UniProtKB/TrEMBL annotation:
Every FtsX extracellular domain range: 56-160
Role description: Part of the ABC transporter FtsEX involved in cellular division.
NCBIfam families found in the cross-reference section: FtsX_actino
Pfam families, alphabetized: FtsX (PF02687), FtsX_ECD (PF18075)
Gene source species: Streptomyces coeruleoprunus
Membrane topology: Multi-pass membrane protein
Protein name: Cell division protein FtsX
Stretches that traverse the bilayer: 21-42, 179-200, 232-255, 275-299
Record bears the keyword Cell division: yes
Length: 305
């Protein structure tokens, strides 16, 4: 009987404040969708870092005959065969080196044409302008400084480049987007909490006569407050469900269909459905608990009869 009464009170409260309940559902859904998106974005950045950092190389660019006026180590002209042999020998002595690949000027020119063959600049570039290089695969990419210190400034070496620096700009941009999503999520969450508190206050005020009677007949504070808390929890749960749908639809249309980023960017390792499904329970729990706690706190102030 008591459970039936509580459920009937929940239905009454939701009908009386239908517009505000809808606003709570929408704001909770948007804030939780942004929360889930921020979590997934963080996982995406970590997945890409693990994927690409394992594949990037340290590149040791060697001097060619055109570098004499641009690098002090190339003042004597192109790298000699003896210098190349010594560099390769020294690389083989380093424990952190997994493999070394020597790329000739002709190979570098071929790769350049494959990437930029349609540009105007590519039509005037010749093989003798390209630099030979050693592509060094490290066992631990974090040990780049060991190679840079050992070979930078050496005769015949033009420069030493860590390819991680190129990727770091992309990761920093994605981290910035993630921070922006968290900030917007925080604002939406604040709006949702304010709406929940206001909805509870209006609902408590509109039913002050009923709650006063319940108090007179000996009902406990918990029994009186339960319908209001469950109304907020129900609205929050609906918002959490909507947020879950938004995350699933967003993952499908962004990666698998619609924009189909997986096809347009085949070299990028995108997070799978398992990552999305692992976030959904957390979204639902927050959607259920956050409004409940906000309502409980609000009732301590507004439900005094």
């Amino acid at each position: 009987m008591r459970a039936q009464f509580v459920l009937s009170e929940i239905g009454v409260g939701l009908r009386r404040n239908l517009t505000m309940t809808f606003a709570v559902i929408v704001s909770v859904a948007l804030s939780l969708a942004l929360f889930g998106g921020a979590v997934l974005m963080g996982q995406q950045v970590n997945a890409m870092k693990d994927f690409w950092y394992d594949k990037v190389n340290v590149t040791i660019y060697l001097c060619n005959k055109n570098d004499a006026g641009f690098a002090e180590t190339c003042s004597k002209g192109a790298v000699t065969a003896q210098q190349k042999e010594q560099i390769e020998t020294d690389l083989g002595k380093l424990d952190i080196v997994e493999s070394v690949h020597h790329e000739t000027a002709d190979e570098a020119y071929k790769h350049y044409r494959e990437q930029y063959g349609d540009t105007a600049l590519a039509s005037v570039v010749t093989p003798d302008q390209m630099q030979e290089s050693f592509r060094v695969k490290l066992k631990d990419p974090e040990k780049y400084e060991v190679v840079a210190t050992a070979f930078s400034g050496r005769a015949g070496v033009h420069s030493v480049q860590d390819q991680r620096n190129i990727l770091e700009n992309l990761f920093n941009m994605m981290r910035g987007m993630n921070v922006a999503a968290v900030v917007v999520m925080g604002l939406m969450l604040l709006i949702a909490l304010m709406l929940i508190v206001n909805t509870v206050r209006v609902s408590a005020f509109s039913r002050r006569r009923e709650t006063g009677i319940m108090r007179l007949v000996g009902a406990s504070s918990f029994y009186i407050q339960m319908p209001f808390i469950m109304e907020a929890a129900f609205a929050g749960l609906l918002g959490g469900l909507v947020a879950c749908v938004m995350l699933l639809v967003g993952r499908y249309f962004l990666i698998d269909a619609g924009l189909s980023l997986a096809e347009q960017m085949p070299l990028v390792k995108f997070i799978g459905w398992d990552a999305v499904f692992s976030v959904l329970p957390l979204v639902l729990v927050i959607g259920l608990l956050m409004p409940s706690l906000a309502a409980a706190v609000a009732l301590r102030k507004y439900l005094k009869v």
